[in-house]
Amino acid sequence: MSESPIDSLARATPPALAGRIRGLSDRSIAWLFVSPTILLLLAINIFPLIWTIRLSFTNFAANKPNAEVKWVGLRNYERILTDPDIWQTMQATAHFLFWSLFFQVVIGFTLAWLINRKFRGNDFVTTLIVLPMMLSPAVVGNFWTFLYQPQIGLFNYAVEFLTGIPASSFSMLGSVALAPWAIVIVDTWMWTPFVMLICLAGLRSIPDYIYEAAEVDRASKWRQFWTMTIPMVLPFLMLAVLFRGIENFKMFDLVVQLTGGGPGDTTLLTSIELKREAFEKWRTGYSSAYAIILFVTVFGLASIYVKALNKVKER
Amino acid sequence: MKLHYTATASALALALGAASAAKAEDLTLCWAAWDPANALVELSKDFEAQSGVTMHFEFVPWTNFADRMLNELNSGGQLCDLMIGDSQWIGAGAESGHYVKLNDFFDANGISMDDFVPATVTGYSEWPKGTPNYWALPAFGDVVGWTYRKDWFERPELMAEFKETYGRDLAPPATFAELKDIAQFFQGREIDGKTVYGASIYTERGSEGITMGVMDVLYSFGFNYQNPDQPYDMQGFVNSPGAVAGLEFYKELYDCCTPPGMSNAYMGEGIDAYKSGQVAMQMNFAFTWPGFEVDPNVGGGKTGYLVNPAGPDGLQFAQLGGQGISVVSYSEKQDLALEYIKWFAQQEVQQKWWSMGGYSALRSVVEDPGFAASQPYAQTYLDSMAIVKDFWADPSYATLLQDSQKRFHDFVVAGNGTAQEALDGLVEDWTVTFEDDGKL
Amino acid sequence: MSAFSVTEPSARSKGIAAVLVFLYAFITLLPLLWIISTGFKTGPDSISYPPKVIFTPSIEGYVNLFTSRTRINEEDRATLSPPANFAEAIVRERDMVITGPSRFGERFLNSVIIGFGSTFLSIFLGTLAAYAFSRFRVPLKDDLMFFILSTRMMPPIAVAIPIFLMFRSLGLSDTHLGMILLYTGVNISLAVWLLKGFIDEIPREYEEAALIDGYTRFQAFRKVVLPQAATGIASTAIFCLIFAWNEYAFAVLLTSGTAQTAPPFIPTIIGVGGQDWPAVAAGATIFLLPVMIFTILLRKHLLRGITFGAVRK
What we know:
The complex is a heterotrimer of chains A (315), B (440) and C (313).
Chain A: H1 5-12, H2 15-22, H3 26-55, H4 75-81, H5 84-115, H6 122-130, H7 137-147, H8 154-163, H9 179-204, H10 208-216, H11 221-249, H12 253-258, H13 270-279, H14 284-314
Helix pairs in contact in A: 3-14, 4-14, 5-9, 5-11, 9-11, 11-14, 13-14
Chain B: H1 2-21, E1 26-32, H2 35-51, E2 54-60, H3 62-74, E3 82-86, H4 90-95, H5 103-108, H6 118-125, E4 137-140, E5 144-149, H7 150-153, H8 156-166, H9 176-186, E6 190-191, E7 194-195, E8 197-200, H10 209-218, H11 241-257, H12 267-275, E9 279-285, H13 289-293, E10 303-306, E11 318-319, E12 323-327, H14 334-344, H15 347-355, H16 363-366, H17 371-374, H18 378-385, E13 388-389, H19 397-412, H20 419-436
Helix pairs in contact in B: 10-19, 19-20
Chain C: H1 11-38, H2 43-46, H3 60-66, E1 67-71, H4 74-79, H5 86-93, E2 96-101, H6 104-135, H7 141-150, H8 156-170, H9 176-200, H10 204-212, H11 217-246, H12 249-254, H13 262-265, H14 277-298, H15 302-306
Antiparallel strand pairs in C: 1-2
């Protein structure tokens, strides 16, 4: 890139304007530079949030613009929190969240630990491994429904090849017992590299002299691993869990393409349920309340977690 | 080569010039992405030639169709001038003002709804149902029926074995009980070195699939949406003993006789399963039938067509599909859109529509003496259209549908609870929705 | 380095690690290889069971991806002139004719317009804000930075409701401008956080020297900081682009005929019956390819990009 777009844009600034900018104080430049971003965030994020809060106290339905909008107070919230189906949805989300994070942490850390042996070609193989997570979850999720097809799908065929269980005897997406694992598998496939990369950064941040000192003290490899490697990598690992946790709580595209929430409501994650309420049943007020509940949950959990993370970092 | 290139370039320039000059003379028609839509593109070329209007098409696959298009209508979008919307949208289309009322236009142009198959007029055009208020012109008649592998049914060794086991001939089923026997007979059988299965049925969760399939069976088992004497009174009708037996039957059929992995199957999956020779019988809408006739695997007389079988008490109904064509009220080209409907309603156009695989709903086409023999499936289509029932067409149909999707999938595929619980739950869900709408 | 180092793993342990990691890489790439190879299968080959690993390549999937077709009956087929090109010939073999181009080209172009448009805007605004946060004393700086980050915690569907209403009343539904603004709003938090990190790393002394030389603040920003931050800006841009490129939830709810991008479109590619898997795979391959290339280009900055600059390598 010979010239950044901003450079050329800056050059295109009319002299009068440039002159005015030139004379500006640092303080005004600071505000001039920051305010467009803040304005945009207010328009795209904060204003909608406030509007959602307002709507959540009404019975508004976006598909009936002519109907009278009534203020219903906390009724939407009450209805959501007392609905047993919501708890089922939350359970499905929790199952997905827990197990996908679990596998990603275990496999991701192991991979990072292996790659950190710095064998020949480790950079190359790292680049290959991270490919899945950069791809479009909707497109990839859609294709996984094909891979999961009994008989014609690669996944079932591979299982048959490895274990002898006939490919057509089970259906990953159709069975109540297997579908929750099917989404965990795809998410793990996609996002393990993420955890791996962060762990790798953690492992590489440990200076060699620490191990050298331990070696002088004749600490066993096992002991070194638990008393030095793990504690040093932990803040990194926790950060990875935070990012994945937030993302998976919001999970929509991948799972909606894979199962659409089925079979029954087995994999109905909160975001999918929210989309159904808001854009298929068009209960705008009700789903706004749902959205607020979700947001408060993510925000609350994330804040608690960040506090814990900071404590670990301080140690 | 070079010459060719210049020619293309100038053609492109011409086309661009023409497009900008005739900008007002564009029409966009929205429909589902499926075979009939491709035929309509071809058919519409005549309209383009006659009127000089350029037609644009927006086709969305079935599983996203309602979602996308209702979203479009609800956001007051101007994408579609003409909408071939699903039959159940008519209530919302009329009450929320998405569609233009067509009565005056029909009167002014001598289009009479008496000229169309009655079931399609009720199903696709009227709102409220049973009143002469028309919001669409019947465009594509469709109904759920069954296809079966005639070539397999005619194999002597299979016929003999079937007779021995069941004490009757292996023949197209007349009742659902027979259908299940046959499905069981074929399930897991080796035919030409391949394992085959009994039947493919609708189980799709996301849009409307499993509801269309379950309802198709439930009607013949004695299911009714409401008390005929008291609208929205559903207790004892939706969850009548017959309806419960019907839902149990559907689950048994799903458990015993479908190919593996058909847990989220709708029209497309059914077509695939049938064409690839996996199943002996297939539940699907009639629109799929022309495609089977020309298919290298199942075409050329290998496929038979079957009206939806009867229930235990001899009741026999079928789930209505199909759509009417409406003018979108947000369109700025309503006059032009009406021109299109006027053209489309003509007898010759409808005749050509049928010949291209479009199921015309015009009586003069389908009641023509030569119609029944014109295609192997023509008679089955006619017989099926005579016994149709449709899902709620209320403005809140999408909510009602989501409820039934959830209840049916939860029981049939996921295996949670009992059929009685599923239908009792459905009555509750639907009651809440009608209460929210102020109808109860 | 000495001949023997306590921290250097032995050749054997290196070997075992390499075998395991390469094995994992192979397994993890199988689905991708399967997508790419399915794109070159014929319809029947793609759904054959057991799955075909070895097959005769065909570009039918790519032809189907870019065209819309209709089936014609035998009599009409007899009247047709011979196929004009290879695509027509392939389609004819399936008893169909090409009726025109498909929507894939448009959708791909929309992805390009919206992706690059929002990336440019995010980078433009983000660089300014990041510079200000990095160099000036902005009141409530930490709070503002956290506020910017927290906007990423909302589930997209949750904000989609009011955005849907807002766009409807402003006429932004299903427009390129609307989607560009929306994606910029989502991306800008990433852009600010990443760029601030990159600009923090540029020593202030450079600018101070320039200021002493008589440059104004703005000139110093333009002539000193920007060239130094070019690599950072480029990699931030690619991250923003990848997000906008892959985004699905907003796209599926807010776009339809005009501004729809490829991710909501590709899963809806259907053939005569159900999904036309070779065409879906072909579309996926074309769509995923740019991101794969970017990933390889980005490998140095990958970590920083995906963690909002929280982890630097």
